[in-house]
Amino acid sequence: MKWDEYSDWAKMIADWGADYHATLRDRPVRAQTAPGQIAAQLPQAPPDGAEAMEAIMADFEQIVMPGMTHWQHPRFFAYFPANAAPPSMLAEMLVTTVAAQCMLWQTSPAATEVEGVMVDWLRQALDLPAEYTGVIQDSASSATLSAVLTMRERATGYSGNREGLSGKGQLRIYCSDQVHSSIDRACWVAGIGQDNLVKLPTSGPRYAADVDALKAAIAADGAAGHIPAGLIGITGGTGIGACDDLGPLLAVARAEGLYTHLDAAWAGAAMICSEFREDFWANVDGFDSIVFNPHKWLGAQFDCSVQFLADPQPQLNTLKIEPEYLKTTGDAVTNYSEWTIPLGRRFRALKIWFLIRSYGLDGLRARLRNHVLWAGELCEAIRAMDGFEIVTEPILSLFSFRCPGSDADQQRLVDALNDDGRIYLTQGAFQGQKIIRFQVGQFDTTRDDVMMARDVIADVWRNLT
């Protein structure tokens, strides 16, 4: 392809994208294809000769698009959102076009320096203390793994990377039983092991970790000769939105010398609204590491996860490796590849810059407040449906419910709703039973989109019964 052809096709694809978003409400939210259906339409071997872009685009429309689930659909109420506000998409187009690998300051000074400022803009928006710095990761999973590795190295006197873990004893990490599975995986990858991730029971209206259970677990581990290494808290757990009471957990962690990490991947975005901070963010400034995902609720194009660090040095001591070919001479600069596991880095900060400038914090706050309000309204509408029950009350914009019947009936309803195509939901599990999750968070959803879900659920349920 020549560059003049690229220009023509780029314009055509931009027009295609605008039309795609304008017609999303007319499409089923979840892909309606059967397993293997897309692969069966692709050639089994690559072509030896060049093919025309017209043919490639035609196949994209006919083969690929029917197999896409539309995460930007205004009635996407499953999982958590992976939003893509238009300004962040434009920023990604620029990043893709420039195609820089931004691993070091010298490999693109602007990428490093804009990242530092954007992290600080978000720090201010979330009302974190000025001493916090941070780095943009690809996902909360990577940020959590970075924190768990730091817990490991700190507890072993920063000898694990060099010597391995043999003979270091059993390192123990403590968390709520409502944490995301990425916490478990981080312990696997870090060599700590599933059995050394101690999950605490939860209780109360926001399903907070039991602080007395934490104290007892640490005492028992000490008596057994184990090594308490870290604590992971949550604000807005994936299953039901569970939120720990941060102050009491931190008091125990400080007393025991534990490194602390807070997973606020979804709910952290809501903390740009001051009214939510007292309930969900109090004492957050005691955590060593905090992660939230602008690519979830805030509207930044995936992938974009911000990890704040009260002191970056422990993570740098854990992850920094500096062969001669990566050294930077001259004035001291920040090389963010030393703060993260991957060496290669994309210019993720640009989409945050475009996003915040395009909407302003007030514009973003208005969206989040609406989502919380509409989730509460829909919750009451479902509560009023005959035989339906609310299992977990709204925590920000997430709640869960059950239809009449068994666990099998819950799954039957979820599957039927998703096959219907007008909305997209997912199931979950809570206290030994299957639940149906509902979260409001897609960037362009409206109150009508949200409240329509009640009618769709009632309609599909009637057809099932």
Helix percentage range: 40-55%
Q: Tally of extended strands? A: 13
Instruction: State the helix count.
Output: 15
Mean pLDDT: 94
Q: Describe the strand arrangement of the main beta sheet, using strand numbers.
A: 1-9-8-7-6-2-3
Largest sheet: 7 strands, mixed
- Shape, principal axes of CA atoms: globular
Beta-strand portion reads: 5-15%
Q: C-alpha Rg, in Å?
A: 24 Å
Low-confidence stretches: none
Derived structural class: alpha/beta
For the terminal residues, how far apart are their CA atoms?
56 Å
Strand/helix succession: HHHHEHHEHEEEHEHEHEHEHHEEHEEH
Layout of helices and strands, plus pairs?
Elements: H1 3-22, H2 53-64, H3 86-98, H4 109-125, E1 133-137, H5 140-155, H6 160-163, E2 171-176, H7 181-189, E3 197-200, E4 202-203, E5 208-209, H8 211-223, E6 227-234, H9 246-256, E7 259-263, H10 274-280, E8 289-292, H11 294-298, E9 305-309, H12 313-319, H13 349-383, E10 389-395, E11 398-402, H14 407-420, E12 426-430, E13 433-439, H15 447-464
Helix pairs in contact: 3-13, 4-13, 5-7, 5-12, 8-9, 13-15, 14-15
Short account of what is shown:
This protein is α/β, with parallel strands linked by helices and 465 residues long. The chain has helices at residues 3-22, 53-64, 86-98, 109-125, 140-155, 160-163, 181-189, 211-223, 246-256, 274-280, 294-298, 313-319, 349-383, 407-420, 447-464, and strands at 133-137, 171-176, 197-200, 202-203, 208-209, 227-234, 259-263, 289-292, 305-309, 389-395, 398-402, 426-430, 433-439.
